[in-house]
Every structure is written in structure tokens, then in C-alpha cells.
Amino acid sequence: MSDTVTVRALATLAPYAPPGGVASIGPGETVGELADRLGIEPEALGSVLVNEAPAGLDTVLSPGSVVSFVPPITGG
Amino acid sequence: MAHDTPLSPMPPAPAVPADTALAAALDAAARQGTYPDGRPGRFLDAPAVAALAARLALPPRLVEIAALEASLCPLRYARNLHAFSLAEQARLLASKAALIGLGGLGGGIVENLVRAGVGSIAAADGDVFEESNLNRQLLSRLDAVGRPKATLAAERAAAVNPSVEFHAQAVFLDRAGMDVLLSGAAVAVDALGGLRDRPALTAAAAARGIPLVTAAVAGYTVLVGTVLPGGPSPADLFGGGGSGTAAEDVLGCPSPAVMAAAALQSAEVVRLLAGRPGALCGKVLIADLETMRFDTVSL
């Protein structure tokens, strides 16, 4: 059994969510590496949250974390 | 912590003539009734408020404040209670909000603040309604295409609650104009779309020392937060810095998401104007209406 994280991909990034919203991660894998594996281009990202706190592409993921990928959102 | 930061003091309620004539007139005009929970109460209906305002040459807003201070509830606010006490309702009527933008977010916010009895609202939007606004903008109508959003907002406010002193300018405000609009306001409300004007509004609210309640929508994703002076803004985190494609340009802004954002902003604005602590200060609420998941993140 590999370690996993929950992935929430919002708005335009929804199609990049893994099946069931769960992705396996390797040891020391970062947010940026996970985004790359899911096919999310860095320029498509407005922000990333890990466990409901702002995070960066270099944030190292831990098993059981919840990762939210959010595109730029400015509409009204 | 940022969200525990006390807000600047509210301006005092405007002076209401505390003469016995007003007290006697209010007492005579009040009618016995019951609140929704069955408690007995004394109420003042809208025709009575209008008649007293005309007879005493007072703004209806001040008649309502005087009534509330005498424990008489203007009938239109009976179902605001217990969400707000009589004293908080009076405080709402004595308060001023400044609102920038009268489109999707702004239209919903006008509707909520006017019905809540926010006594003074200064608003601005230089735009006119277009057919493409009809999917989501509450103040837009087919027969109003081409008319100024500010005009429709003023008409709506007067039709729903004439006690609200509603002033809307049909102009796109620059920073200097925002500074003037925010004068005397206890809360600023960001109902702008896009990133262009938001930094100026954030700076204007900070200069006034008042909180800014902001929101953004793309598709069924909604962001709402309250920026305290000098504090972090959701736009800093979620705006993308102006680079990349904004999600709303791909997904649009459907009505349920825009209305939800406006309602969430309005709840926060009314809470602040009533003198309560904000629930979203230094935070952002992320609501995904696609999955019906709501999360609150500290910035």
C-alpha cells in the first residue's frame, strides 16, 4: 500500500483531480511534483492549500494530507 | 491573531430629537402584536413610519431608530429578530456601508443590506446593464438593458426600504473617489470583478481603518473574506497576480454562485455593522457549490 493524499481541484482544475480524489505519493514528494503528475501547469495555478493552509510548490506532502489546487479566481 | 483585532469604533448614532412629542407620537402609532416566537411586542408599520417622518420632518431612518430605542419594532424588521436585538437593529440603521460595484455581487448585496436595514449605503458603479448580465445580476432586467446600474440600484433600494439612505454614483471610482465614498463608512464592500481596481479599494479601506469584505467567483467556486487594515487579502493568494487565465473567463459566473457569494458577504457586513466581530477576518471561506463543500482557510 502506497501513501496517499486527498486532492481537491477546484473550478477549471476539476478535470485534473485523480480518480476518487485520492492520489498516491512517494517519499518526500512535493506539491509541485504532484501537480506535474496530475497534469496541472504551474501557470494554471492561483494557489495551493495543504490542510487548509496556504502552501507552495516546494511544500513536501505528508500521507493523509488534503491538497487543494485553486486556479486564479477574480470574478464578480 | 488577526481576526481577534478589535475594529475601529463605530460612529455614534445620529441625534434623534428626544422630545416628548416624538415619544408620544411613536407610542400612539404603535400597535400591539406578537413576534414570530409568540412573544408580545409593539410594532410600527411602514405607513406609520412614513406618516411620522412627514409630520415631524424627520428622515424615516431616524423615526425607526427612535422607535427601536423605545422598544417599538418597525414591523419590517420583526423577522430580523432574534438574529439581531432591537439595539443591534438600531445600530444597523445608524450605520453606513460603502459598496463598490453594482453588478452580480453588488446587486445581491444591495438587496440584503437594504432589507436588513443598514441605514446608509454609499455605492458606485459606472457601468450600464447588458444582456449578458441577465444570467446572474439581480438588478438587471430585460427592460433595463442600457440603463445605469447605479440608477437601478437606487430604484430598488427606494422600492424595498425607503428608510435606507441610499446614494449611488454612476461612475467608475479611482482611488481618490474611493476615499470619498468610504468617508464615514464603518465597512467597505468589494463587489468588483477582476483584479484591476481591487488593490486601490483595499488601500482605501486600510487608509480609513475599516474592514473590507471581499469576494470572487468562478463557475461554482466562491471565495469570501474580510480584509482588516494592513492584513492579508484573499486576492493576494487567489488572484494569481494577474498572470494566467482567470477561471471565470473559462467557467463564467452562474447565478447560484454569485448569489451565494453576495449573501455570504452580506452576512459578514451586517455582522460587522451590528458591532459584532467579523467571522472571516484574515480568512477566506472557499465554497464549492459543485460538491457543496465549505472550507475556511486562515491567510
TrEMBL record, chain A:
User: Gene3D superfamilies recorded for this chain?
Assistant: 3.10.20.30
Return the InterPro entries for the record. Answer: Beta-grasp_dom_sf (IPR012675), Mopterin_synth/thiamin_S_b (IPR016155), ThiS/MoaD-like (IPR003749)
Alphabetical list of SUPFAM superfamilies matching this protein: MoaD/ThiS (SSF54285)
Give the signal peptide as a residue range, or say none if absent: none
TM spans (from-to):
none
Protein known as: Molybdopterin converting factor, small subunit
Q: Which organism is it from?
A: Solidesulfovibrio magneticus str. Maddingley MBC34
Automatic annotation (TrEMBL), chain B:
Q: Output one GO MF annotation.
A: tRNA threonylcarbamoyladenosine dehydratase
InterPro entries attached here? ThiF/MoeB/HesA, ThiF_NAD_FAD-bd, Ubiquitin-activating_enz
Name the record gives this protein: Dinucleotide-utilizing enzyme possibly involved in molybdopterin or thiamin biosynthesis
Starting at the broadest rank, the lineage of the source organism is: Bacteria, Pseudomonadati, Thermodesulfobacteriota, Desulfovibrionia, Desulfovibrionales
Q: Which residues form the THIF-type NAD/FAD binding fold domain?
A: 77-298
**One Pfam family it belongs to:** ThiF
**UniProt-listed GO biological process terms:** cyclic threonylcarbamoyladenosine biosynthetic process
Highest taxon listed in the record's lineage: Bacteria
